[in-house]
Each structure stands twice: as structure tokens, then as C-alpha cells.
Amino acid sequence: xxxxxxxxxxxxxxxxxxxxxxxxxxxxxxxxxxxxxxxxxxxxxxxxxxxxxxxxxxxxxxxxxxxxxxxxxxxxxxxxxxxxxxxxxxxxxxxxxxxxxxxxxxxxxxxxxxxxxxxxxxxxxxxxxxxxxxxxxxxxxxxxxxxxxxxxxxxxxxxxxxxxxxxxxxxxxxxxxxxxxxxxxxxxxxxxxxxxxxxxxxxxxxxxxxxxxxxxxxxxxxxxxxxxxxxxxxxxxxxxxxxxxxxxxxxxxxxxxxxxxxxxxxxxxxxxxxxxxxxxxxxxxxxxxxxxxxxxxxxxxxxxxxxxxxxxxxxxxxxxxxxxxxxxxxxxxxxxxxxxxxxxxxxxxxxxxxxxxxxxxxxxxxxxxxxxxxxxxxxxxxxxxxxxxxxxxxxxxxxxxxxxxxxxxxxxxxxxxxxxxxxxxxxxxxxxxxxxxxxxxxxxxxxxxxxxxxxxxxxxxxxxxxxxxxxxxxxxxxxxxxxxxxxxxxxxxxxxxxxxxxxxxxxxxxxxxxxxxxxxxxxxxxxxxxxxxxxxxxxxxxxxxxxxxxxxxxxxxxxxxxxxxxxxxxxxxxxxxxxxxxxxxxxxxxxxxxxxxxxxxxxxxxxxxxxxxxxxxxxxxxxxxxxxxxxxxxxxxxxxxxxxxxxxxxxxxxxxxxxxxxxxxxxxxxxxxxxxxxxxxxxxxxxxxxxxxxxxxxxxxxxxxxx
Length: 707
Ligand code: NOJ
Ligand code: CA
What we know:
Bound molecules: 1-deoxynojirimycin, calcium ion
Radius of gyration: 26 Å
Distance between the termini: 76 Å
Shape: globular
Low-confidence stretches: 1-38
Largest sheet: 10 strands, antiparallel
Helix content: 10-25%
Number of helices: 13
Number of strands: 38
Strand content: 25-35%
């Protein structure tokens, strides 16, 4: 009796909710069963709208297992699904598919800001109902199939508390498959250089993780809509099989929930080539629509800041007695506001404005104040000065990893920012992985991972509180991005990878490959506050400013040509882009600085045109507020020629304002060799570019009014 559903033939099994319900009751009342006979298995399939990606789910042997194919090639072999709970029946064994429902969607939606204004969501959905035949516990697997990949998630009706202790989700992609990843749960969070190696050599890695099969199909495994759960990393268990590994809570379990269990979407972006991964909107399409309503107050733009000064040791965050090099003084901030106003930047970040930085600020999380300014920083005067000049202060809240100290001050801290005209705050969580301090209502300290459920909750709390005051958030040392900017469009950017700062003091610095790795890995998750725009590529080779002032090692430097550094404004998407170098370095090169002045940060359309993971990229974007296009081409330590088909341009002529590597450009021997020239081009043209070692090109295509 308990097998009557299984006897229906697999692919067209259609059960009404009512049938499924009665099946559940039948099963639960029929006693226990260990393993179902193989011939009783049900298999359900669902394909993408274009038919090229297919997903197959089976309950053979009482386990849920899936496979994924692309163009008929099995790209994810038989992989297990399931969840284990503490002290109660899990969704892991004795499982039977008891129902399904299907739907199709073809719609578009608009981003308030983004890589493209109009996003198309075309997918086929399958929801599979499963049941434990021994206990009647039910669950659902939601699957959505897109032309650019797929997502699936677990939904388990539940009442009361439940602790998730393991997620069994596997991705069996084979030991020979090539991968680009960073390690997970290591002290520096997401701030590692990417390694390229076969899956068979991986241990525990973060997502997004990028893969290339022997057939050259490219995959990215990640997750979407990480809310009220902990982040998923990937651990190799059996050879070539990556298993979900959830970031643990400080109490040892992975996730604690009250009521229904809803996991984030587990995502696999799929493309025949590397550029296709960059063009995918899958992560955004798997997030909920905007919950904030009118967000016209979220302002894309460029910002200057008191920031690089500290990283290259010309100033300090703290305000200690002589020799005092406190960078965030009223006078220095006025000069920075003048600079921003002169060039039309809409923000000025100021780090080190508040008390708490003196001494060992890395470990000072308990003493930061988010309302008390240093004596030499006059916030009301500066807020007014910025307003008068037509720009704004950008707030900075470095927590040094003490989220309770921050949350206790959050309302007052945000109120102060709001009343100071601030529209964006950079938050910071400098602390080793597993060392974020959370103090409970009894005063007991707990130490959490940056990607644990506690931090997932914390970030969303800050984002929602900030939204009430029309303030955007740019989190550093964050939890990774999973597309929540769609739901909360004030979550404008974040770090979550090695940024420019590593070129000030990192040994080794980011090097020639890093930007090319970021484009095909980290950037697939969403905007990054990389803070591009270095014009002095060897900042630590300058004379110290005073005897007391040590430079960082000269080995820490920007291993790009100047043209490649410019290309990052187009290549590494963020709606807010820092103009990070010192004023004097820009004013020494007004010709090259012009590109930074012109480049927008909000786009109508974006197209990755060509590239290979870790090697090179060609990306074009159309300005949201004009018919102009911008293009970035950039390469790793290998010089290369690229040929660019300009058919993406609209009708008519464009003036191509080209900032490209000169003939001698080479990141080691001649990084400043740049040619700046104009050419008239149209969509019928091809453009040939020679990129030097770790070189690049940045191009503005200015629409000419000649029709
Ligand atoms: C690390 C951030 O990434 C960096 O941008 C910031 O300057 C320091 N923390 C201090 O908050
Ligand atoms: Ca950082």
C-alpha cells in the first residue's frame, strides 16, 4: 500500500496536493521502511526554456539524487540532496517523491540601478513534494531552470524550534574539472588570491566557485537569497564530489530556526564560455523583488576619501599624541570635499573620524563609539561644508568585529549620519574568521564566523535600519553577496575579496591575475567596492614624509599598467566607485584622469564580449543616462592582442576616446606607458588592441550627433 505512488510511471507523475496529502498519511500510518526497492523509483525531469539545460531528480533507494545535463552532456553526475536536523527525523533517507507541480515564467523587471536596467526572467519551475515513508515528514524541493543555469532550494514545513546540523547537497562535477576558488573558513575570510586547480585537489572553498569542464562548459556554483540561514561553502568529500558545508554557529549547530525551514537557492550558472557566466542574471532572478519601494534616494556615483592616506602610512586612523598624523582632521576633510566638488564626485568617505581607533584598533571592537568624534574633526561644520559644495560625507563604521557594540549604538549612529546628510555608510568587520564578537542578553560573549547565521542576520538588520533613514550600505569584511540588492536596493556594494588595499601593504600584493579572477568568480555574486584608480602604482617607493613614518614594503604595489587600472571602473561593477588615490597623483595626470571623470557607475546594459577565466576579459557597458558606451579590455601577466567587434554600438558614429597601453607598456618595466587618442568608429568596425603584460584599455564611445 505504501508504494502505490511509486508505481506510477516516472516522468508524467502528476499528483494533486490532495493526493499528496493522503499519501503522506498513508505512509506515516504504515510503519517504517528502510530502503525502497530500486524498481519503485520515481524520476522527474525539468529543462530550461531553450531545452539545453536539464535537471533530473530521483528517489531511488529512498535518497534524493539529482543530475544536470547541458546539451546532452552530463555536467553534474548523481548528487545527493537532503537536510539533517538535531534530535528529530531528518530529510535524508526513506524518502519518496509524492507530488509535483510545474509552472513557466517569461517576464521582465527593472533594477533601480545596476549592470542593466531591464532584467529578463524566463524559467521553468518544478516543485517536488517528498515524504519520509516511515514518519510522514514532508518537504519540498523547488527547482527553477533558466537558459543560464538553475537554482534549487529546500522547503520543509515545521513548527517550533529546529536545528539544522548538516546539509547533504552535493555537486558531483568530477575530479578533472578545472576550478578557480578561494579557501573557506580561513582567518582572512574572503581575502585570498584565487587558485586554479582540478576539483580533485580542492578542500574547503567559498562560493562563488568557478569551474570549467573538459568540454569547456563553464559552471559557477553559488547561492541566492541567503536570509535567516548560514552561508554554504563546498567541501570535497568523495573524489570530485563537492558537498555543501554550512558555516557553523558559535553553539556548534549550523542553523537554528523557529518554524518553517527555507534554505537559500543553491545555484549553478552554466555557460558554453567564460563570458556567458558574466552575462548571467540568475542570482538576481532568484531573489525576491524590491521590498523598499521608492529607492530613488539610493545614489550611484563616485567618491573620494580619506582612506589611501592611512593604508600607505601617510596618516593614521587614530589620534594619538605626537607625532600625530591623524588623517581625518577638519582641515584635511575640507580639502577632500573641495577635491570631490571640483570634479563632481558625490561622496567623501572619511575613516578615523570617531573615537576608538587609538592603539590596536584591530582588537578594539569594544571601545568604538559611532557618535563621538575626535576633537580635531568637526562633523556639523563638515556636513554643512559638503552640502554647500554640492557633495556629501560618506559615513564609516568600523566595528572591528564587535557586532553587539555596534548594534547597541546603531539607532543613534544612523541618526547622526542621517542628520549629517549622509546617504551611504561603509561598514567594516575587521576580525579573524570565527572571531566576530556577539554578546548575548546575559552578557556572555560568543564568537561567530563572518558568514554564519548571526552575521547574515546582523547585516540585514543594519541594511533595514539604514533604509529607514534613506542610507545605503557598503559592507567590508562582509558576508558574501547572494543578490539581496534586488530585495534591499540600498545594499549597494561590499568588499568580500582582496581589494586595492592589499596593494598598499599586502605581501604578495594582488598581482596581475587577481582582477581577471575576480571578474569570473567574486563578481558573479554582485557589486564589489574594489576601490580602483591608483595613479601612483608604486606608492611605497616614495620618500617617507617624516622620519617617524615608515613605508610599507615596496613589494606591495599595483602590478597593473595605468591603462589597466583605468579599465577596472568598467570591468569591476559597482554602483559606487572610489577614486582612491591622493589628489596630487591625479592632478599630475589630468589626461588619464579624464576617463575617471567621464565613466559612469550606473548602466543601461552590460555585455561581456570575450575572455577566459583568469586570463583576459573584454566588457562593454552602456551608460544609463546617455547613448554612450564604455569598454574595458584587460589581461593577466601575458601580453595579448584582442580584436573587438563593435556591433554592440547603436546606429551612427561614435568618437572612441581610447586610453590604451603604449608599445612599451608592461606592469614591471613601464607601467605608465599609456596612449590617449580619439578615433571615429561605428558598429560596422572592429577594433584591434594590443595589451601589455598586466595591461589593458579603457574606452569611452561618445555618441556623435551626426544623423
Ligand atoms: C578594512 C577595509 O577593507 C578598509 O577599506 C578599511 O580602510 C579598514 N578596514 C579600516 O576600517
Ligand atoms: Ca578588507
